[in-house]
Amino acid sequence: MQQSLSYFIENPTALYLAVGLLSLCIGSFLNVVIFRTPKMMEQEWHQECQMLLHPEQPLIDQSKLTLSQPASTCPQCKSPIRWYQNIPIISWIILRGKCGSCQNPISIRYPLIELLTMVCSLIVVAVFGATIQMLFGLILTWVLITLTFIDFDTQLLPDRFTLPLAALGLGINSFALYTTASSAIWGYLIGFLCLWVVYYLFKLVTGKEGMGYGDFKLLAALGAWMGPMMLPLIVLLSSVVGAIIGIILMKIRGENQPFAFGPYIAIAGWIAFLWGDQIMKVYLGG
Question: % helix / strand / coil in the chain, to the nearest 5?
Fold first, then answer.
């Protein structure tokens, strides 16, 4: 590991090239994760409900959806997607944004997520350079992109991502990678409790649930990565952006339509992770 990092320190162009190509492939995989994870969760819920309510009956749907099975197909004509039709960004351009079999349009969101993953990954490289912090920063970035789009689509922040993300933050900071171990623990606890208090007070006053528990867990995970000092910045940034976009969505969709808050926490957390110290210094006049 140290030898590889030393090589990339001496050859930064190779580092950018390697991370750029890798992140494009990761972005393609994230498209699969974003699309399939909610469907996998829904299938598990249906099977659990059937086993609870009718344990004597065989499962109606015994096929198990995973990230690798079944193979990817066109959602319209169900034709299998060949490997050469799945090259990040390039295949979409060559196919002109259409299925190679039925010519139905392929959502531009797929190459945009691949491009977003690459751009965000290269920014992480620019901030941290060839370091261990960069490697874990890439992991955080990829998970936050995944959570952003899943929550945007379904208003869900799955525990299978938020809890391991928190555990990883606590684990790496036991070696003081981004903050001290005690700061990571306090960040996790305060991150969860501060949004829980807001949620409880809002429910007490209005009788409605203003946010989900996934939001608490995501902020707690970010606290575990960065410590409690970054939490006010994350909450402030996410609230401002969320309020502006929320007002716009209310005008478009109507007042009673829910919207996901998790994406704004994720975006604010990513900004704080990369530039939080500089923002705090400017804000405090340091």
Answer: 70, 0, 25
Element (H, E) at 142: helix 132-154
Predicted local confidence at residue 277, as pLDDT = 92
241 with 284, same domain: the answer is yes
- The long-range contacts involving 158-166, CB below 8 angstroms and separated by at least 24 positions, are 158/37, 158/41, 158/214, 159/214, 159/217, 160/37, 162/214, 162/217, 162/218, 162/220, 162/221, 163/217, 163/221, 165/140, 165/218, 165/221, 165/224, 165/225, 166/217, 166/220, 166/221, 166/224
Q: Please give the single-letter amino acid code of residue 103.
A: Q
259 plus 275 within the same structural domain: yes
- In this predicted model, what pLDDT tens digit does every residue of 215-273 receive, in sequence order? 999 999 999 999 999 999 999 999 898 888 878 877 777 656 677 889 999 999 999 99
Q: Could you list the residue range(s) of the whole structural domain that residue 47 is in? A: 1-74+110-127
Q: Are residues 123 and 205 in the same domain?
A: no
Angstrom distance (rounded) from CA 122 to CA 167:
25
**pLDDT at residue 198, as a whole number:** 81
The three-state secondary structure class of 102 is coil
- Residues 235 and 173 reside in one and the same domain: yes
Using CA atoms, how far apart are residues 240 and 131, in angstroms rounded to an integer?
A: 33
